[in-house]
């Protein structure tokens, strides 16, 4: 049984609806799937309703954080979605995402790129607007050839000409909020430096003091030496290690199940959760 603890649906920046994500995961042999859309729990009910017999859904979320000037992403699992402090932060981040997206569209227009808010809104649909939606709009408008081409200093890459900053949580506070909501916090892709998400070892140690439970080591953006270093660090800090596809549908080539979590790590995660239980069909 494959255990994939990090993926996205069209509720955030994936390309497939939650039910379709579940069906694709099942077809790929995934028996335990965590849906971890960015800063939202909106896809959980649909995903749970699509579970085939014998499959398990772990309700999760990928929280947007910032350490100094760098993005950090925190995976939160099996928390109480109604816990007021975490819910309030979730809504604040969501609202700021929409404000930020409009700001980037405005900057693109000032740079002569024919990207309109109507185009971005059509691509976004009912989900939370994010940079991947704007990048897809840029491709459709003929500004760039691929989504990856949009994430550069020339356009909407971090610090780029059309980049707009946004609200994000301090990661220490985020870890504490997840714990207070009965959830289990795991640091997402901490060595994906190519994406601007590299997290220093000393910062990870400070998160452990706040309640961090695990590190996502087996990730498509992690090289073999990074994975080995993360496993060693996890051993030193008393953390469990997870693995996941971080699938975004068409944007990542439908790779559900390409990286997985060991059963003992999944059981450690379940044992720590008091906010919610997995959905099992």
TrEMBL record:
Which Gene3D superfamilies does the entry link to? 1.10.150.650, Metal-dependent hydrolases (3.20.20.140)
SUPFAM superfamilies linked: PHP domain-like
- Superkingdom to which the source organism belongs: Bacteria
Ranges for domain Polymerase/histidinol phosphatase N-terminal: 3-67
Per its record, what are the GO molecular function terms? 5'-3' DNA exonuclease activity; 5'-3' RNA exonuclease activity
List the Pfam families hit by this protein, alphabetically.
PHP
Tell me the SMART domains matching this sequence.
POLIIIAc (SM00481)
What is this protein's name?
Phosphatase
State the organism named in the record.
Actinoallomurus iriomotensis
């Amino acid at each position: 049984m494959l255990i994939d603890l990090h993926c996205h649906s069209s509720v955030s920046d994936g390309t497939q609806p939650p039910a379709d994500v579940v069906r694709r995961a099942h077809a790929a042999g995934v028996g335990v799937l965590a849906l971890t859309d960015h800063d939202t729990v909106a896809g959980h009910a649909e995903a749970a309703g699509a579970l085939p017999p014998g499959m398990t859904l772990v309700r999760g979320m990928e929280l947007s954080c910032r350490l100094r000037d760098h993005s950090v992403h925190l995976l939160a699992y099996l928390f109480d979605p109604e816990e007021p402090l975490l819910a309030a932060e979730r809504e604040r981040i969501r609202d700021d995402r929409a404000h930020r997206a409009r700001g980037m569209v405005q900057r693109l227009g000032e740079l002569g790129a024919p990207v309109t808010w109507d185009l971005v809104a059509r691509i976004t649909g009912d989900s939370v607007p994010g940079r991947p939606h704007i990048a897809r709009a840029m491709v459709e408008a003929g500004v760039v050839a691929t989504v990856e081409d949009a994430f550069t200093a020339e356009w909407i890459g971090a610090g780029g000409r059309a980049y707009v900053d946004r609200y994000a949580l301090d990661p220490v506070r985020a870890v504490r909020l997840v714990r207070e909501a009965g959830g289990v916090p795991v640091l997402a892709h901490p060595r994906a430096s190519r994406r601007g998400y590299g997290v220093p070892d000393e910062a990870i140690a400070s998160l452990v003091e706040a309640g961090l439970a695990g590190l996502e080591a087996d990730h498509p953006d992690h090289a073999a030496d990074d994975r080995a270093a993360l496993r060693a660090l996890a051993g030193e800090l008393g953390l469990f290690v997870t693995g996941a596809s971080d699938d975004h549908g068409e944007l990542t080539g439908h790779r559900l199940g390409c990286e997985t979590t060991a059963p003992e790590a999944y059981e450690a995660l379940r044992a720590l959760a008091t906010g919610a239980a997995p959905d099992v069909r």
